[in-house]
From TrEMBL:
Keywords: Hydrolase, Signal. Residues 1-24 form the signal peptide. The keyword Protein transport does not apply. This is Trehalose 6-phosphate phosphatase. It comes from Anopheles merus (Mosquito). The lineage of its organism: Eukaryota, Metazoa, Ecdysozoa, Arthropoda, Hexapoda.
Length: 295
């Protein structure tokens, strides 16, 4: 009996140590230990109090849904969707999803009505009442769009790579391409994109082509917050989670006033986020924590 009593805590300890951490470490703290359980009370308990008005901003791919070899295969779990719906319908929070996808595409993936959707890294915003806001694109640049896609398809689409047409921007994907061809095709894609007046930047196993206007996810988040609350929105409680370099603009924009999470397993990654969490599953636990505060 005594031996069984001693072994029980040991077995429990072994079990807990085998769990994947749900929340890991403060951003940029390479020496901080990984945690076995989510510590959202520790990180957010003093920031978000019951009854506070919350703005929850989220990325989609790699944050609300696992990354896949093709964007069409990405699926948000029913549990994640239910939690997000409960938060959006709570009356104490509004939810905005800012994605690299086109705005109608990200709305179709999530399928919730009481949510603000922003696509093409903030170039498009779709409100629940159907109102849309689009950042202006110079006509001469817009006229080059189809030509750019045509040349990309002719010159760099091979060995598993492909071009995603998002109507006002493009993404050249090479996640499934043979690795030996990736450096050359990525470099050439960048050259082609820039030759047509678009900005090229690296993303997850891809090169993105965006219109040459001073706009990004951070500016889109600022616009959404300003139009959804008021000029004093920085006095509200703002949370953001994202997994990509394009999400860093939002993290920088709310730094010092809001709280942000970078979804990554890379302990050495330098980020503007306040904290790192290692997985989409950890984002789900973050939503459940928020849900417990607002519902």
């Amino acid at each position: 009996m005594a031996r069984s009593t001693l072994l029980a805590p040991l077995a429990c300890l072994i079990f807990l140590n085998c769990l994947e951490p749900l929340i890991s470490w403060p951003a940029n703290d390479k020496d901080a230990p990984a945690m076995s359980h989510p510590e959202f009370d520790q990180y957010l308990g003093d920031y978000l109090q019951a009854g506070d008005t919350l703005a929850l901003l989220l990325d989609y791919d790699g944050t609300l849904a696992e990354l896949t070899s093709h964007p069409n295969l990405t699926q948000m779990s029913d549990a994640m969707r239910d939690s997000l719906r409960n938060i959006a319908n709570s009356g104490k929070a509004f939810v905005a999803v800012i994605s690299g996808r086109d705005v109608d595409g990200v709305k179709e993936k999530i399928g919730l009505e009481n949510v603000i959707y922003s696509g093409n890294h903030g170039l498009e915003v779709l409100y629940p009442n159907g109102t849309r806001h689009n950042q202006g694109i110079p006509r001469d640049v817009a006229d080059n769009f189809d030509k750019m896609i045509d040349q990309l398809n002719r010159e760099v689409v091979h060995h598993g790579s492909w071009v995603e047409n998002k109507r006002v921007s493009i993404t050249f994907h090479f996640r499934e391409a043979e690795q030996q061809y990736v450096p050359e095709m990525a470099a050439r894609a960048k050259e082609i994109i820039e030759s047509y007046g678009y900005r090229a930047n690296a993303a997850h196993a891809s090169v993105e082509g965006k219109p040459p206007i001073q706009w990004n996810k951070g500016l889109a988040a600022e616009y959404i917050l300003g139009t959804s609350f008021d000029a004093n929105w920085r006095q509200r409680k703002v949370l953001f989670a994202g997994d990509d370099t394009t999400d860093e603009d939002v993290m920088r924009m709310i730094k010092g006033t809001g709280r942000s999470f970078r979804v990554t397993k890379d302990k050495d990654l330098v980020t503007s986020a306040d904290y790192k969490i290692p997985s989409v599953d950890a984002v789900y636990h973050l939503l459940k924590w928020i849900e417990s505060r607002v519902v």
